[in-house]
Amino acid sequence: MGKVKEARRKMESIKAHLETISVEGNDPDQRVHVVCNGNRLVQEIKITDTNTVTSDHEALESAIKEAVNDAISKANEIAEEEMKKVAKDMLPPIPGLM
Fold first, then answer.
1. Cα–Cα distance, 94 to 74 (Å, whole number)
2. CB distance 78 to 20 below 8 Å
3. 87 vs 7: CA distance, rounded Å
4. Which CATH class is domain 9-81?
5. β-sheet bridge partners, residue 35
6. Angle at the Cα of 79 (from 74 to 84), degrees rounded to 5?
7. Which of 76, 86, 89, 70 is nearest to 32 (CA)?
8. How many other C-beta atoms lie within 10 A of the C-beta of residue 13?
9. Would you state the pLDDT for residue 8?
């Protein structure tokens, strides 16, 4: 039971740590910039091309989607690395596992 409590405590610690990490995502044309935290919550969206806002809503929507997905993908990578660290500390050494 002690291992379960320890794992739960470490998971909460990781979640708090991920809250402090910021990752940035952009659309390929750099028109939209998104910042997410390590828990994959959007913190900020900036639109750098104001012409897109007024002229082409579909292009803007696509750019926002691409930038958000980029930021979330980066946040997922960071979260996965943090989880691997905890799993490595919790599990006995198994060749080829990590």
1. 28
2. no
3. 9
4. alpha beta
5. 24, 44
6. 125
7. 70
8. 12
9. 83
Strands 32-37 and 42-47: antiparallel
Q: Burial letters for 31-57: b for 16+ Cβ neighbours within 10 Å, e otherwise?
A: bbbbbbbbbbeeeeeeeebeebeeeee
* Diameter of the chain measured on Cα atoms: 60
As a residue count, the chain comes to 98
Distance CA 35, CA 48 (A): 14
Strand arrangement, sheet containing 22-26: 22-26, 32-37, 42-47
Supply the pTM of this predicted model: 0.77
How do the domains of the chain map onto residue ranges? 9-81
**57 — pLDDT class (breaks 50, 70, 90):** confident
Helix axes 57-90, 2-19, angle to 10 degrees: 150
Q: Which residue carries 């905890």 as its tokens?
A: 86
